């Protein structure tokens, strides 16, 4: 199975073409950026395809991170993935950003739960906790850093993501310290492809998982009343 995985959820733009038959990555590109995903993604995908010497007709599945993350970034990635799927007639799956962040640690050892946390600003984090055999212990949600730390500090746990350090700093007094703290800033598109290859399509729709309203809201005070 040949999978094209793309990620524009956070402060990076990434694309990977991964062959699940051999578990080999044929081409991958990753660029750190806070904005500009819309301008970078399609040229990046074209370079990845050219670098792999592959044609879109060879792709079996498209995968994309669906959030939480930047509102604009999520729309860019999801729209592109849907467009690729529509043009080729191939399926498109969407996976939570937090799940993809946790995947490398769980693949290495799933005996110790992994809490994936993304800095949501204003003293909050996006949080998900996954245990042995992929069991969801805390579903994706937005919480205050303090509450999030308390919710996962009930036994051995590993922390990953841009919010991992925030949780570690707010760790409850007397609780067992985290086994590992890894401040991975963005998801790995290769792991996105690997997860997508075994994901349930009925539970992996390519639609945004925002978890909260956008910080920027339209102004209403100066509106002229309609007649």
Question: What structural keywords apply?
Answer:
ATPase_NBD; Nucleotidyltransferase, domain 5; 5-stranded mixed beta sheet; Gcp-like_dom; 27% strand; T6A_TsaB; 10 strands; tRNA threonylcarbamoyladenosine biosynthesis protein TsaB; 227 residues; alpha/beta; disordered C terminus; 30% helix
Describe the protein.
- The chain folds into two domains: 2-96 and 187-203, ATPase, nucleotide binding domain (Nucleotidyltransferase, domain 5); 98-182, 2-Layer Sandwich (Nucleotidyltransferase, domain 5), CATH 3.30.420.
- Helices cover 30% and strands 27% of the residues.
- It contains six helices and ten strands, in the order βββαβαβαβββαβαβα.
- It has helices spanning 37-52, 71-88, 97-108, 145-152, 164-169, 189-196; strands spanning 2-7, 12-19, 24-32, 61-65, 92-95, 114-121, 124-130, 136-144, 158-160, 180-182.
- Strand 7 (124-130) and strand 8 form a beta hairpin.
- It is globular, with a radius of gyration of 18 Å.
- It starts with a strand and ends in a 31-residue tail after the last helix.
- Mean pLDDT is 93; it is low at 216-227.
- Residues 202-216 have a biased composition (Basic and acidic residues).
- It holds the Pfam family TsaD.
């Amino acid at each position: 199975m040949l999978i094209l995985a793309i990620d524009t959820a956070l402060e990076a733009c990434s694309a990977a073409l991964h062959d699940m038959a051999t578990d080999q990555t044929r081409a991958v590109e990753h660029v750190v950026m806070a904005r500009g995903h819309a301008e970078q993604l399609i040229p990046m995908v074209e370079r990845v395809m050219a670098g792999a010497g592959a044609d879109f007709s060879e792709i079996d599945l498209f995968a994309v991170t669906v959030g939480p993350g930047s509102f604009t970034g999520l729309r860019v990635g999801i729209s592109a993935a849907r467009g690729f799927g529509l043009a080729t007639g191939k399926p498109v799956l969407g996976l939570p950003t937090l799940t993809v962040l946790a995947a490398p640690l769980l693949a290495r050892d799933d005996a110790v739960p992994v809490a994936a946390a993304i800095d949501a600003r204003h003293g909050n984090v996006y949080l998900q906790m996954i245990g042995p055999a992929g069991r969801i212990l805390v579903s994706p949600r937005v919480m205050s850093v303090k509450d999030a730390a308390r919710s996962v500090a009930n036994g051995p746990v590993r922390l990953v993501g841009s919010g991992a350090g925030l949780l570690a700093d707010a760790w409850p007094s007397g609780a067992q310290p985290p086994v590992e703290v890894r401040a991975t800033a963005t998801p790995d598109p290769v792991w996105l492809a690997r997860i997508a290859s075994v994901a349930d399509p009925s539970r992996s729709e390519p639609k945004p998982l925002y978890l909260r309203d956008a910080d920027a809201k339209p102004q209403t005070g100066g509106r002229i009343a309609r007649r």
